Amino acid sequence: MTAITIGVVDDHPLFREGVTRSLSEISGFIVVGEGASSDDAAMIASDNHPDIMLLDVSMPGGGLSAISDVLARSPTTKVLMLTVSEEVDTLLGALQRGAMGYVLKGVGSRGLAEAIQTVLRGSRYISPTMSAKVMENSLHGGTPEKNSLTPREREVMDLVAQGLSNKHIGLRLSLQEKTVKHHMTQILSKLGASNRTEAALQWRERR
């Protein structure tokens, strides 16, 4: 099995070293670069093209700003935020910039490994605490992002909430399945949902 390569960027040396040590002890994980700033993250992306880049939000240069730099230099890298920030706006900002996951510090090595495996499979991962906050936020009116679905995206979500698959949504709306998948990607980002089930629950509560 090919090893999963990881970059770890956090401006707290002890925390960064702990994360690196924990990941290195997991079979199949290799940490190929460490850094403390957005510039370091960009350099690691350019030099190593890791499968996963772990980024803190609060670091020199800004973790959110680093996302686009990392993806520009290494488009195949999956960005996973590892932070103490429990602000919904920060989470949504990270997802909108291209991050695939948002994990709160304090997670154990097993939980972090699960998050890494999830985003490598192409799915988003959001810490349960943050998913609950997003849900609560949506129930109390939400943020502008919650209300920014296009008319077509709202049609898609109405059918998702009814339990229809992408294929059947495409048939119902006369769309190709890949077009429905594209709409779902945009919808999950706007709603801050980690999967279609979570998005459907939010949507049902909003209706």
Automatic annotation (TrEMBL):
Gene3D superfamilies: 3.40.50.2300. The modification 4-aspartylphosphate is found at D56. One of its GO terms (biological process) is regulation of DNA-templated transcription. Signal peptide: none annotated. Residues 5-120 form the Response regulatory domain. Keywords: DNA-binding, Phosphoprotein. GO terms for molecular function: DNA binding. Residues 142-207 form the HTH luxR-type domain. InterPro entries: CheY-like_superfamily (IPR011006), NreC/VraR/RcsB-like_REC (IPR058245), Sig_transdc_resp-reg_C-effctor (IPR016032), Sig_transdc_resp-reg_receiver (IPR001789), Tscrpt_reg_LuxR_C (IPR000792), WalR-like (IPR039420). This is Response regulator transcription factor. It comes from Rhizobium leguminosarum bv. viciae.
